[in-house]
Amino acid sequence: MAQPVLISPHAESKRPFLTEQRRSRITAYTFISPFFILFSIFGLYPIFFTIYLSFFKWDAMGPMKFVGMKNYELITSDPTFWISFSNTLIMGVMGTIPQIILALLLAVLLQSGMTRFKKTFRVLFFMPNITSIVAVTLVFSTLFGNNGMINWMLNGLGLESMAFNSGWWGVKIAISTMVMWRWTGYNAIIFLSGLQSIPTDLYEAARIDGANRRQQFTFITLPLLKPFIVFVTLISTIGALQLFTEPYVFLGQSGTGSTRQEGVTMVTYLYSEAFRNGFFGTAAATAVMLFLVTIIFSVINMLVSSRMGGDTGGRKK
Amino acid sequence: MKRVKHLALMLVAIMLVASLAACGGNNNAKNSTNNSKNTSGNTAATNDATKTEETAEPAEKVELSVWTLGIVDYEDLAKEYTKQHPNVTFKFQNTGDQTAHHNNLTTALSAGSGAPDIFQLEIGFMERFISAQDKFYNLNDLGAKDIQANYLDWKWKQGSSVDGSFQLGLPTDIGPTVVYYRSDLMKEAGLPVDPAGLGAALNTWDKFATVAKQYKEKTGKPFADVTDLVFNALRDQSQDEIYFSKADGKFIGDTNPQVKKAYDFTVKGIQEGWISNAMLWSPEWGQGMTDGGFAVVLGPAWMAGNIKTNAPDSTGKWSITQLPEGAGNWGGSFLTLPKEGKHSKEAYDFIQFALNKENQLGSFKSVGLMPSIPALFEDPAFTEGKDAFFGDQVTAVEYGKAAQRVKPVFYGPLHDQTDTFFKNALKNVLEKKADPAKEWDEAVKQAKKLAERS
Lengths: 317, 454
Description:
The complex is a heterodimer.
Chain A: H1 20-53, E1 56-57, E2 65-66, H2 70-76, H3 79-112, H4 118-130, H5 133-143, H6 149-156, H7 168-196, H8 200-208, H9 213-241, H10 245-251, H11 266-275, H12 280-307
Antiparallel strand pairs in A: 1-2
Helix pairs in contact in A: 2-12, 3-7, 3-9, 3-11, 4-7, 5-10, 7-9, 7-10, 9-12, 11-12
Chain B: H1 2-22, E1 62-69, H2 74-84, E2 88-95, H3 98-111, E3 118-122, H4 126-130, H5 144-147, H6 153-158, E4 169-171, E5 177-182, H7 183-188, H8 195-201, H9 205-219, H10 227-235, E6 240-241, H11 257-271, H12 283-291, E7 296-300, H13 303-310, E8 318-321, E9 333-336, H14 344-354, H15 357-367, H16 380-383, H17 395-405, E10 409-410, H18 415-432, H19 436-451
Parallel strand pairs in B: 1-2, 1-3, 6-10
Antiparallel strand pairs in B: 3-9, 4-9, 5-7, 5-8
């Protein structure tokens, strides 16, 4: 919190209520209040209500019935919940790590090699991110169909067709591909802005000292990009844990099967629990579990990035 | 000067907050999916303008809000009704997304505000609401008992509590299942082409399997379209109950012989190769209708619309006959009156008007809703409509026959999700060549796990 400017530590004495100091404080708080008011209505209240709800049995219409820890017992004893948990992690790894490496390479290429069409490429990179996910998923579904283009290409290479709609790996590959397609460009743009913030004189100095391209990349680019890499990893991790639309649309095409074991994620599990089965209590418990998992991963992320040495904040000039 | 600025800014900020917070009060998402309404059909039959008035007119103006689902013509009927009752006007909201449609109602009911006066409830979601009797008007109190006899008994019972004392909705359309088949392909395979002849050749499931196998051997192509529809056809012929016991709501899918029969029959079809490997609603499925990738589609009355849109080039090549061993029902709706509405009497009067005999006939003619009033099935106005797409067959008669064979069945609130487990098992058998018995056990295990929660 920034301190108001007009602090005057006076001794207590008879003063009008609205001193200059108070007034400026009220003004300041009024200005920042919209966020806090909206956040408490749409953020804080639902969060606490979810935690409260996770101890009740409720179908969203009838009376709420207190059941204690039963919802947690139900979901933790449900194999599908654990499958959804492991699926989320596997698809998270499959979609995130290659994606970040690819985004970094794209950004470096764009920064160093391209001078003419930089702006065009930036727009192109960003396009997938603002396309409707549902539309994207439908297009990918036809590509990944049983007799779709991907299988046709595989067959052309003399390989077996893959069951992208129902295979244990097939489904995950298809969904991770969609996630990668959607977020690689977005992350590349963030890396690009990071690259542009690196002073060019560093590279010049390195070149004079006889460093080659690869050395420049490992000793200048990567260390100075670290805050950006940490940020992108954290955002991607949280995003990966909340994967929903792609599996939901991709697997739910025949009106069933959005909770197929091969591709069920924690959020699709939560969704079908609440909106297909009407068990809002277990859905809330799932949400709380997801919250805990997200916190654990964020903490791991922070520990790892601080262990890697160096600050994650501003760069020393 | 400075102070004035401060105050002005503060005021602006406060107003901004107030206006933003005001959005919080009204959070029932207005779903206005633009359903391209079927305007090609004539509007509802405008006969009988001289109907006898039975109900007293409301003294002051009443506006009724109505949420409808899919392609229906109730808006036209409402205009008609307003002509006769100038004090009653309507506000419509239509969507094609049935999940969102019913979730919006759930939200409105649990919030205690925002529900419409009249809500169109799809049968697949019936069980979710039938137990919430405190949230809906009991239509029996409003006079539904007197018109019960006009409607199909099984359809009426779908909208009643188990003991029949509470009536949640009035029946709109129904979805009796029939066999849609390609007469040209039957001819090539040396099978009967006329509905009666083919119906006789397929009048038991065993015969159906034999014919399907012969067809596959002769033409090299699958006979039936998709596993889901074959499974549904047999599943919906179950007596009284499918996955859950009518008496105590317990899971019985593992012991219900009809479910097992449906599963085994579909597995047989997969293993003998006479069910295609397309997925329901997929582009390949639509393609198969056009290019003859399969010869039959087992589906409800409203499936005709899907076949016409998927395969416009196959006009005149399709016909309809009866399913082996009985008919099932898939889909159809009810008009219900949520308790949040203040004008139950006026709302009830409108729905019984919209769903009476001549208006259901009008809905069938304009948007193809299969009526739930059996008296219409013999009505010449209903039975003379030839359909060029079906080789000038009078389809209404076949649907009517199927509708008479449907038996009421209890679903239970978890029917939809439980069904998914079995569908997934079949999909694994089809696509991954999985062991059917193992997949069956897995589906039963998942279904039991889910049932533990209720």
